[in-house]
């Protein structure tokens, strides 16, 4: 079914809140607005201050509204994978209808039957994702509506998460004046959106290295089988640099972006750059290799922990290898280091949308794309979770367009960049052309 309409994705990250507005015209996606505002109130992927988070969401939304020339009302928001659990479930019902033709209500009822289970008081069901239906023993049906049968069965995955995480995300978005049309489990969106059909089928691991946490997700047989969260990310690398070199967090971030490399072998001890050290009146020269070793130590630790988790479920045997995403994965040398530690094929995913060719946007684009793909059957099974009447005719796209729809092609130039362009420490001679990080240009 070709999608048409407007979708807004919202990714509430530890480092920044991202918003992307896309318009679908008969299945063709056009990004028409982007917002990226520095986060406050999020720590290690989790909301710790509702008011500050609300303000960050509002800033990001305002940027995107300005770019897109619309007023955003409904958003599809990503949910982090912290303590997420995935479980297979089955439901079975006798078809109600006299004519035995399967209706929307039967689909909702079979989902309700699959949902019967006890959930601990601190957890809640986020969503139920139908895999396939069986009608009178005939398996593998994706949409049984309109078919005739007396017995309807459904295989599905149930996702549960901590009530507090889900509540806080909801509260922040609603308090920012927005309506949540879909809550999307971020690693589910990510794996579904960035992996090819074959990768999803044969099995692939996605590692999203954000600012405050790293999320590992394994997709196999086109289902999200496993997630693991390590609450360490790129901000920890910056903190390490700041602590070891005795320089401010802001300087450390600039050093990381401008000279950082996670793979010391290919760096040199003779390339030096000046660092403003606290308590010293003159900048101190530090060499590229030393900086690289600081970075490597943290990223290696993140990867080793991820490897332990992946080894337990033998996910590294899967033929798809590893796909990296997230802001911290764009640091040079991360792919090489991952390759060495995991000993499988590793590649970095960079979104292929004009103005968004930066791994920090991978999640928000995936959230949006995933939400846009959700069909009627999903809406019906979801309504068994929420108890709300499904809006199978209208998708997740209420919005108000302010001006007449004649927008210039979107360009991405946030007024308040999420990351202050770092105070570029004066590079030593001959080093300028070694400023490696092209992704940072996006904030210029
Ligand atoms: N070009 C770059 N080179 C190195 N690191 C970068 C670059 N761009 C962004 N980062 C790092 O990526 C991190 C932010 O990534 P991202 O935006 O994916 O995180 P987030 O989604 O806000 O956080 P999380 O997912 O952990 O909640 C920061 O630590 C930042 O320093
Ligand atoms: Mg993130």
Automatic annotation (TrEMBL):
<protein>
    <recommendedName>
        <fullName>Cell division protein FtsA</fullName>
    </recommendedName>
</protein>
<comment type="subunit">
    <text>Self-interacts. Interacts with FtsZ.</text>
</comment>
<dbReference type="InterPro" id="IPR020823">
    <property type="entry name" value="Cell_div_FtsA"/>
</dbReference>
<feature type="domain" description="SHS2">
    <location>
        <begin position="7"/>
        <end position="194"/>
    </location>
</feature>
<dbReference type="InterPro" id="IPR043129">
    <property type="entry name" value="ATPase_NBD"/>
</dbReference>
<dbReference type="Pfam" id="PF11983">
    <property type="entry name" value="FtsA_C"/>
</dbReference>
<dbReference type="InterPro" id="IPR050696">
    <property type="entry name" value="FtsA/MreB"/>
</dbReference>
<keyword id="KW-0132">Cell division</keyword>
<comment type="function">
    <text>Cell division protein that is involved in the assembly of the Z ring. May serve as a membrane anchor for the Z ring.</text>
</comment>
<feature type="compositionally biased region" description="Polar residues">
    <location>
        <begin position="385"/>
        <end position="399"/>
    </location>
</feature>
<dbReference type="InterPro" id="IPR003494">
    <property type="entry name" value="SHS2_FtsA"/>
</dbReference>
<feature type="compositionally biased region" description="Acidic residues">
    <location>
        <begin position="413"/>
        <end position="427"/>
    </location>
</feature>
<dbReference type="Pfam" id="PF02491">
    <property type="entry name" value="SHS2_FTSA"/>
</dbReference>
<keyword id="KW-0131">Cell cycle</keyword>
<keyword id="KW-0472">Membrane</keyword>
<dbReference type="GO" id="GO:0051301">
    <property type="term" value="P:cell division"/>
</dbReference>
<keyword id="KW-1003">Cell membrane</keyword>
<feature type="region of interest" description="Disordered">
    <location>
        <begin position="385"/>
        <end position="444"/>
    </location>
</feature>
<dbReference type="Pfam" id="PF14450">
    <property type="entry name" value="FtsA"/>
</dbReference>
<dbReference type="InterPro" id="IPR021873">
    <property type="entry name" value="FtsA_C"/>
</dbReference>
<comment type="similarity">
    <text>Belongs to the FtsA/MreB family.</text>
</comment>
């Amino acid at each position: 079914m070709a999608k048409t309409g407007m979708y807004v994705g919202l990714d509430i990250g530890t480092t920044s809140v991202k918003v992307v507005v896309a318009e679908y015209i008969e299945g063709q996606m056009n990004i028409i607005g982007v917002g990226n505002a520095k986060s406050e109130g999020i720590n290690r992927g989790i909301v710790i201050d509702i008011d500050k988070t609300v303000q960050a969401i509002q800033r990001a939304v305002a940027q995107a509204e300005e770019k897109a020339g619309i007023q955003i009302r409904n958003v599809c928001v990503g949910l982090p994978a912290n303590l997420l659990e995935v479980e297979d479930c089955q439901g079975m019902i006798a078809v109600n209808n006299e004519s035995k033709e399967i209706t929307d209500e039967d689909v909702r009822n079979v989902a309700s039957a699959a949902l019967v289970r006890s959930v601990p008081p601190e957890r809640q069901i986020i969503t139920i994702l139908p895999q396939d239906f069986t009608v009178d023993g005939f398996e593998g049906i994706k949409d049984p509506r309109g078919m005739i049968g007396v017995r309807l069965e459904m295989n599905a995955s149930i996702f549960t998460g901590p009530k507090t995480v889900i509540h806080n995300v909801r509260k922040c978005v609603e308090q920012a004046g927005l309506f949540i049309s879909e809550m999307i489990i971020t690693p589910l969106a990510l794996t579904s959106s960035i992996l090819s059909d074959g990768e999803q089928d044969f099995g692939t691991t996605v590692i999203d290295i954000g600012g405050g946490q790293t999320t590992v997700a394994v997709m196999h047989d086109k289902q999200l089988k496993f997630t693991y969260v390590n609450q360490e990310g790129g901000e920890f690398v910056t903190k390490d640099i700041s602590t070891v070199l005795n320089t401010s967090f802001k300087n450390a971030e600039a050093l990381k972006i401008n000279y950082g490399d996670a793979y010391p072998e290919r760096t040199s001890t003779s390339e030096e750059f000046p660092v403003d050290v606290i308590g010293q009146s003159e900048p101190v020269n530090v060499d590229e290799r030393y900086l690289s070793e600081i970075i490597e130590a943290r990223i290696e630790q993140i990867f080793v922990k991820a490897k332990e988790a992946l080894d337990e479920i033998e996910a590294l045997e899967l033929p798809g290898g590893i796909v990296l995403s997230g802001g911290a994965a764009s640091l040079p040398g991360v792919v090489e280091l991952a390759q060495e530690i995991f000993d499988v094929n590793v590649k970095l995913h960079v979104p292929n949308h004009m103005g968004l060719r930066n791994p920090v946007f991978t999640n928000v684009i995936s959230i949006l794309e995933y939400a846009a793909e959700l069909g009627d059957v999903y809406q019906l099974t979801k309504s068994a979770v929420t108890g709300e009447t499904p809006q199978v005719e209208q998708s997740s796209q209420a919005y108000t367009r302010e001006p007449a729809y004649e927008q210039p092609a979107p360009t991405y130039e946030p007024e308040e960049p999420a990351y202050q362009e770092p105070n570029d420490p004066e590079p030593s001679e001959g080093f300028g052309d070694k400023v490696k990080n092209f992704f940072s240009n996006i904030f210029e």
